[in-house]
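Ligand: adenosine monophosphate. Inputs:
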Amino acid sequence: MLSIEEALARVMERVPANATERVPIEHAQGRVLAETIAATVDLPPWAGSAMDGFAVRAADVPGDLDVLETIAAGRVPSREVGPGQASRIMTGAPIPEGADAVVMVEDTASTDSQVTVRVSATPGQHIRAAGSEIRAGQTVLAPGTVLGFGTLGVLAALGRPSVLVTCRPRVGLLSTGDEVVEPGFPLAPGQIWSSNLHALAGLCRDAGVEPVYLGIVEDDPVALAVAFRRAMQCDVVVSTGGVSVGDFDHVKDVLIGMGVSIDFWRVAMKPGKPLAYGFIGDRPVFGLPGNPVSCMVNFLQFVRPVLRTMLGDPNPFLPVVRAALERPWKRRAGRPELVRVRLSPGAEGLPTASVAGVQGSAHVLGMAEAHGLMMVGAETTLVAGEVSVQVFDWTWTSGAGAGYRWA
Ligand code: AMP
Ligand code: MG
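Predicted complex:
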């Protein structure tokens, strides 16, 4: 049996290269940057006012000054500010020649042609100097940056209408099993509705890749071969079911028969041992177990990091938090286990983890309730105290008790 680490190292050893594409910034959210963004201009591009008020020479104030003009945002000054002079200026308007400070309108009293400034000023005050935030030529964003509203704002501020990002791999999803039926259709005796395809599609979207629904295939070698051939049009293939040692688990033989280089691993982990992994040409194929929880947990451990790496994310693994386990949890030693846990913010410091109700590998509800996977080592029989949790759902951080507190 392989350890989780060995299995992960093997899949990460050979992650296929991924293409890049240019997209408009309004379509770039969540995408991974594939170019270095260097500023081509200073930001701000010119010295501007940070306040509505008066552009003055700092040495002249407090005092009474002549008002030369009004400079609105979007206009350019026409007069140089000399000794004893000022220009009325709005936030975002360029600073006129001669002025070296802005005083707030609240600190003045004025008529159209005169202003009394009641306060002193320091040179540079309320002026956004050219290049004070970003200098032309400066590198601001590196490849691998996951684009969010902050970085989209930076791109737009630098005048970029589009950006080079990695392409989203298309992930073909295939379910196997004579008993498995698409929701919306009636069940015959012995049948169940397929939960895995839809859970996998959700996992794909969550990983930032595009799920391609390839449907349910019966436990028949010919049908499976046809389905896997069709799946080759995708960048990555993920199937569920049919990879263990049952009489109707044909996935292995079908893939080998198609000339696919594939390994069948028994990974020492709970839930879910069997995992098929290989390549159709240069496209990774993952044969995940059919048990719903095993299927999802295997995806999170092995498929997601490959997909995130294809996307160019330098941090392809689920984030981990330390948490205090609410009450000790007993289990049998044997395999490392990924236990579904709920998280809550906790009173002070550490979040609190509690084991989600139903833990069976066929129980979809346990996964729905959980926020993360608690990592339990092979030999541990009593889990207590501080634990590590791989987090896939962050909604608990904004729940009641998360506690907005001012520093
Ligand atoms: P298998 O890996 O094919 O031996 O399937 C293991 C278990 O998972 C069986 O109980 C299957 O009925 C169940 N299973 C397989 N595929 C799915 C699916 N798409 N949705 C829900 N359960 C499934
Ligand atoms: Mg099956």
